[in-house]
Amino acid sequence: MEQKTRRVAIVTYNRVGEGQFPNGVVKGDNLEVYFAQNGHLAKWTWSSEGTLEEQTSARKYTAASVVRSIDLSKMDEVYLYVGNNGGEEAIRQSADLTSEKINYVMCGCNQQYKRDLIRRVGNQDAKVIWCECGGRETLENIATQLLKDKKTN
Ligand SMILES: [Zn+2]
Predict the structure, then answer these.
(1) Ligand 1 centroid to 31 CA: how many Å?
(2) Which terminus of the chain, N or C, has less C-beta within 10 A?
């Protein structure tokens, strides 16, 4: 008998923990955890060339490409870090997801602004997990918990 594999994505333009999780998929029993991070393997860093305007949008660009590196529509659940810089873009990229799939992992910076943006993309019913700035520890705990659960048998 085949059970459906649950797909969970952990997406951050910062990184998870100290970078001990690889970008890409970690498989478990009936579970796949997809990691998309920046600042670890630096897959999504940008070049410092270009106009000042291009450079100032670099953070936005990074946030957008990290989110796009995984097909979020195929996920059963998504943990998305929403920090101060780049959070805006991360929220925008989550607009196509239904709110019951999303967990916004947010630090307290510009709380009201971020909530407004989330409402604007129609995901005001999504879960919010409060975290420290950068979200590294919180995401690490989430990942550890997910991958611990799958190893119980
Ligand atoms: Zn913060």
Answers:
(1) 30
(2) N
Give distance in angstroms: CA of 129 to centre of ligand 1: 13
What is the per-residue pLDDT across 55-90, written as a single tens digit (0 to 9) for each?
556 667 777 777 778 888 899 999 999 998 788 889
- Can you give the residue ranges of every domain in the chain? 6-149
CA-CA-CA-CA torsion sign (94, 106, 60, 23): negative
pTM: 0.83
Fold type of domain 6-149: Rossmann fold (3.40.50)
| CA angle, residues 56, 62, 65, in degrees to nearest 5 | 140
Alpha helices in the chain (DSSP H): 52-56, 58-68, 87-93, 111-120, 136-149
